[in-house]
Specification:
The chain has 164 residues and is of the alpha+beta class. It is built from six helices and seven strands.
């Protein structure tokens, strides 16, 4: 299991030490109140060769399993696969559709199946908990392919803000 988190200590600058209201945000009461347990947000994208190559450039991950069909054929996957974190980026895009301004706090993830060039991926975030006092929402996250196979799953925590 991979665990990625922005962490509470990641923000040590003077700007980040200021309260949210001092930074021009108000707590996301309206945004969070509009979400019910079980509510879903989605983002869909078909993975193309171009997207995989662009992601390799942006991320710096030039592993041949993503870019070289001949080399990838010699692996357990028997062909090229997309970067796992590319599908996780689709989860981020789904969560960005939540009401208000969304700040990603943490994410756990398990990569269950490979994503191949041509796969149509749907990323889903489902509200499983919320803390109106903190303006935080917990979501079950997953991506599925066009065959309804779950390719990754995890849990995210986000903070919602209403713009002033």
């Amino acid at each position: 299991m991979v665990r990625a988190s922005t962490g509470r200590d990641a923000c040590a600058t003077a700007y980040c030490r200021r309260s949210y209201s001092e930074r021009g945000f108000s707590m996301g009461q309206k945004a969070i109140d509009s979400l019910e347990i079980g509510a879903k947000t989605t983002f869909s994208k078909t993975v193309t060769d171009e997207i995989v190559r662009q992601f390799a450039e942006v991320s710096g991950d030039h592993n041949p399993i993503h870019l070289d069909e001949e080399a990838a054929r010699k692996t357990i996957f028997r062909g090229r696969i997309a970067h796992g974190v590319l599908s996780l980026a689709f989860v981020s895009a789904a969560l960005a559709k939540l009401p208000g301004t969304v700040v990603y706090l943490s994410q756990t993830v398990q990569f269950l199946k490979p994503v191949r060039i041509g796969d149509a991926i749907e990323a889903v975030g489902e509200v499983v908990g919320k803390d109106p006092e903190k303006g935080e929402v917990v979501l079950k996250t997953y991506c599925k392919n066009q065959r309804d196979q779950i390719v990754l799953e995890g849990e995210a925590r986000v903070k919602l803000f209403d713009p002033r």
